[in-house]
Target: DUF3278 domain-containing protein
Amino acid sequence: MKKRAYVNDYDINTEVTKEGNKYKEKKNITYHGKYYRIQMDDDKIKKAKWINVVFGIVFFLLFTFLGFLNNDSSRIFYVVLPYVILFLPIFYTNMGTIKLLNISGDMTTKEYEFTIQRMRKTTLSMLILAIACSIGEILYLVRNKITDFTSKDYVFLSGILVIAALTLLFMQHQKTINKNIKEIE
Model:
């Protein structure tokens, strides 16, 4: 993202006052960009925000648990690469969730993009990476003819599939919020 992406949404007015022999400069910053509002009851908004928090915590715990499994496929490039990269969308989803939790009232364009838009994009990338990791794990299991369903590799595959399923549920939850967001001028 550009460093000064939201500079056009603000006006800076400078007020100069004289106090004795010194001049003081006071900057007044006013926002004139778009506002976004979640048009739901306050109780529903709180519930939706806390559901986001629960999803974020579950994603992080599952990711951490799967990292500590130490299965044989965790040494295979096409399995471990999507898994390791999966950390970034989980991290950014949790960042967006925390920021959304702290917002009350209308959102500025920057707040909207760093919460709602960020969660939408990172959730999609979580789904893609979880599916890629699942495909890599299935290829590893088929190629090495592993049929013991109690092995750590099948536990890892199950965990990644749970992450993919929860990501789909999280996307559905986000749709209920996104359809109630209105742009205000």
About this structure: The chain has five helices and five strands. Helices lie at 42-67, 77-85, 87-101, 109-143, 152-178. Strands lie at 10-19, 22-31, 35-38, 107-108, 181-184.
